[in-house]
Amino acid sequence: MDIPAGTEALIFDCDGTLVDTLPLYLKAWQAALQEVAGIDADADWFRGRGGYSEQMLLSAVEKSFGVTVDRKAVIAETRRRVRETLTDVRCNVPVITIVREWAGRLPLAVASSGSREVVEASLAAIGLSDVFSAVVTIEDVEHPKPAPDIYLLAARKLDVSAGRCVVFEDSDEGLKAARAAGMTTMDVRPCSSFHVSA
Question: Which of 22, 10, 15, 19 lies closest to 134, judged by CA?
């Protein structure tokens, strides 16, 4: 595909952008919340929260259900369940096609609000572990998306100015983060036809 003139690097979100892990996360979060905290959160409750970091999601859980949960235990159980099901993960074919088209031609990075253990396992599951020059995850920054930190750090690791990066994202939080970093964005959500905005 064509990318904007002057682009020097491509940065990809992981969950929902490179890989369709959101169904896996939904089941994992539901099971972990039930097992650790006795909370029954149906699929409707999770709708619209796909781009949340783990801590943001747990803050929403505590507010919605009026409880305080053992965050470390819920996160650990959720990650464990996601890792166990990654053999079933599907890649987002249109986005993976772009990755393969530009690999070796431009530096590529992943910038994800997910944990490093799950992001790296996801990339391995779809055979893309060696394609990206940098992988930035939630553990690497103080502020998650929609703050620009993750994308700014990815640009620094690629040694490319933020304004020369194009970001592929599937969430409102991620798109806000990339725009706040001064990057061009491509929305990869269904029916978006890769809407480009600077």
Answer: 10
Q: What is the pTM of this model?
A: 0.86
Which tokens hold the place of 21?
């892990």
Q: What residues form DSSP beta bridges with 130?
A: none
Residues 6+ apart with CB under 8 A from 97: none
The domain ranges of the chain are: 9-20+90-197, 22-87
Which pair of tokens denotes residue 106? 């431009």
Query: Cβ-count burial of 174 within 10 angstroms (0-12 exposed, 13-18 middle, 19+ buried)?
Result: buried
Angle, CA of 119, 55 and 163, to the nearest 5°: 60
Is the alpha carbon torsion for 82, 84, 88, 91 positive or negative?
positive
Token pair 């650990």 is found at 76
Which residues, other chains included, contact 34 with Cβ-Cβ below 8 Å and sequence gap of 6+?
Answer: 40
Q: What is the mean pLDDT of residues 143-170?
A: 97
pLDDT at 70: 97
| Confidence (pLDDT) at 192 | 46
Q: Active site residue: 13, 15, 20, 187, which one?
A: 13
Tokens of 36: 């650790």
pLDDT of residue 22: 83
13 is catalytic: yes
User: What's the rounded Cα separation, in Å, for the pair 20 and 37?
Assistant: 26
**Domain 9-20+90-197: which CATH class?**
alpha beta
